[in-house]
Specification:
The complex is a heterodimer of chains A (about 120) and B (about 120). With about 120 residues, chain A is mainly beta. In chain A, about 0% of the residues lie in helices and about 55% in strands. Chain B is mostly beta strands and about 120 residues long. The termini of chain B are far apart. Classes of the chains: A mainly beta (about 120), B mainly beta (about 120). The interface between A and B is medium-sized, with 26 and 27 residues.
Chain lengths: ~120, ~120
């Protein structure tokens, strides 16, 4: 079993729909990243969070450390949101220390938003 | 916008040849990472540096891979000799780690390597 599990693996939506992507992890963490990768493109860090909620435009990320779960929400989805969304965690004790950088990645969620 | 610059963007080579990938991190970032992405394995950490010092390269096949950071503006990843199983997209990322913890993480556009 992977340390970081994302669901769903594939998600298809119509423009305007509210989208949720989930990430569950089995290790204690100090922080979590949500990354976005467009087809053939680079990787962009959308959020890094260690508690609570963060919002940027139509994107909202939440995390529940006790339940070892994070969600990425997209409101009023648009075809340009079509991408792979990757959850990645920093195991506890690593972030900020000399071992910082040992991100463990989920397998990614492929999102397709149709016009 | 500040960005991480990787070269080459694409490289096709024959098995046994040496491949060098370069990365220019964002000025002021103190940590540089090399990741590899394949369809089968997803994203994997190969190596990373803090203030130019190598911290961890346990994810890297030592017999053929080497990573260096000769100065603050350049990180290199070298494969010698290359093999078909090295075909992947190699990403460089740089980040800023402060006393408050880790925050910024910026990826380069990646170097797509094909070894025939």
């Amino acid at each position: 079993k992977n340390e970081v599990e994302q669901s769903p693996q594939n998600l298809t939506a119509q423009e305007g729909e509210f989208i949720t992507i989930n990430c569950s992890y089995s290790v204690g963490i100090s922080a979590l990243h949500w990354l976005q990768q467009h087809p053939g493109g680079g990787i962009v860090s959308l959020f890094m969070l260690s508690s609570g909620k963060k919002k940027h435009g139509r994107l909202i990320a939440t995390i529940n450390i006790q339940e070892k779960h994070s969600s990425l929400h997209i409101t009023a989805s648009h075809p340009r949101d079509s991408a792979v969304y990757i959850c990645a965690v920093y195991p506890r004790g690593y972030a900020g220390g000399t071992s910082y950088g040992k991100l463990t990645f989920g397998q990614g969620t492929i999102l397709t938003v149709h016009p | 916008d500040a960005r991480v610059t990787q070269t080459p963007r694409h490289k096709v080579t024959e098995m046994g040849q040496e491949v060098t990938m370069r990365c220019q991190p964002i000025l002021g970032h103190n940590t540089v990472f090399w990741y590899r992405q394949t369809m089968m394995q997803g994203l994997e950490l190969l190596a990373y540096f803090r203030n130019r010092a190598p911290l961890d390269d346990s994810g890297m096949p030592k017999d053929r891979f080497s990573a260096e950071m000769p100065d603050a503006t350049l990180a290199t990843l070298k494969i010698q000799p290359s093999e078909p199983r090295d075909s992947a997209v190699y990403f460089c990322a740089s980040g800023l780690v402060s006393g408050a913890g880790a925050n910024v993480l910026t990826f380069g556009a990646g170097s797509r390597l094909t070894v025939l």
